[in-house]
Write a structure and sequence with these properties.
The protein has helices at residues 8-37, 41-44, 55-60, 130-143, 147-153, 161-165, 167-195, 201-204, 212-225, 297-310, 320-330, 334-346, and strands at 47-48, 65-82, 85-95, 98-104, 115-127, 157-160, 229-230, 234-236, 240-245, 248-253, 257-269, 272-284, 288-295, 315-316. With 347 residues, it is an alpha+beta fold. It has a five-stranded mixed β-barrel. A four-stranded antiparallel sheet has the order 7-8-9-10, sandwiched between helices. The chain has a four-stranded mixed sheet with strand order 13-12-11-14, with helices on one face.
């Protein structure tokens, strides 16, 4: 006889990873949108400068990060300071019959060389700010030019090496690569788990007890034909405890469970107490753990009583005696005891 629990485990795994796939898709879409708004894609693949390089055109096409060789840079005599520390030296060069400001790092400019014949840098194209306008005003005064003539001779955009290769830019590049990689890999993994539930983490972690595929098939068959006990999202069959909740899917052979206990959580807002929910914790052999959150006391007590009856070796309840017993069973302190024994002999 079959029930509506036929293929319930695999359906739950697919539903869980479909939600994760959607979340990963939204996350990746958010990164892509931000990358387009702030021109971050050119950070990963900077525009190479050549003979036809035009800062204005690149900026308007969102190709703001560049890499290339610049020739004949002349020091303006002005520097940029942050908190009293010199962080850049202003140079100018000629491109397509217009002058353009180039801000170089102190190390790149060797603390303000008067003339740099040739240099290869990674930089960002920036629109002239108030600081650059002030720089042009000072240059006009030094050269006895008028402000309008100076602004006409210089481009509305500047090239900033610190903005294109500073620590903040490097960190942003790392975060962008990590975010894109995480989003893509998560989506691929979710698609794989949806297509082949046996490859999902909740099933693969059963490998310490035997064949994950065999146990998945056996648990699914037992659940669909004769479940021993069932709540909204927890089930007990002849040989398995099964959880299929919004928080994930878990399977544990009853014979491998060594400890059960519950923990209560009081939900409140300001001074008003709304409800109490209960979380059941299951510890299995080979350090496998299951957490079943936000259940009712009746459901938790029923599951714990049934499991304790099905496997009399299970320790029930959280107390110091049971905790120490589980540590002994799992050998949690064996390594530290060996270290202590070794140190004691040496001392």
């Amino acid at each position: 006889m079959t029930t509506n629990l036929e293929n319930h485990i695999t359906k739950s795994i697919r539903a869980y990873y479909t939600k994760k796939l959607t979340a990963a898709g939204v996350f990746l879409a958010g990164i892509l949108i931000l990358s387009m708004i702030f021109s971050l894609f050119s950070l990963l693949s900077p525009q190479k400068t050549g003979s036809d390089f035009n800062p204005t055109r690149c900026y308007k096409k969102n190709q703001r990060y560049i890499e290339g060789t610049f020739r004949d840079l002349y020091f303006t005599g002005y520097t940029r300071s942050t908190f009293g520390r010199t962080t850049g030296y202003y140079y100018y060069t000629v491109m397509e019959d217009r002058c353009i400001i180039v801000l170089l790092k102190p190390t790149t400019s060797e603390m303000g060389l008067s003339h740099i014949k040739k240099i290869h840098i990674s930089a960002e194209i920036c629109k002239n700010s108030v600081d650059e306008s002030s720089l042009l005003r000072h240059l006009a005064r030094d050269l006895s030019w008028n402000q309008a003539g100076m602004e006409e001779a210089f481009s509305d955009y500047m090239i900033s090496e610190p903005a294109g290769s500073g620590n903040l830019t490097i960190l942003l590049k790392i975060l962008l690569i990590f975010g894109l990689s995480y989003g893509i890999l998560t989506m691929l993994y979710c698609l794989l788990c949806i297509a082949f539930p046996v490859l999902s983490h909740p099933i693969r972690r059963l490998s310490v007890y035997g064949s994950p595929a065999k146990m998945l098939a056996e648990a699914g068959e037992e659940l669909s034909t004769l479940p021993q006990l069932a709540t909204d999202d927890m089930f007990i069959t002849e040989h398995y405890f099964i959880e299929t909740s919004n928080y994930g899917v878990a399977i544990m052979p009853i014979s491998k469970i060594i400890w059960l206990y519950k923990y209560s959580t009081l939900h409140k807002f300001l001074w008003h107490h709304f409800a109490i929910s209960y979380t059941m914790y299951i510890t299995g052999e080979k350090r496998r753990y299951i957490r079943c959150p936000k259940n009712t006391k009746t459901d938790i007590d029923g599951i714990m009583d049934y499991l304790a009856e099905a496997n009399h070796k299970i320790l029930v309840g959280f107390n110091e005696k049971n905790r120490r017993k589980v540590e002994e069973i799992q050998g949690d302190l064996v390594f530290f005891r060996k270290i202590w024994s070794f140190l004691s002999r040496k001392v």
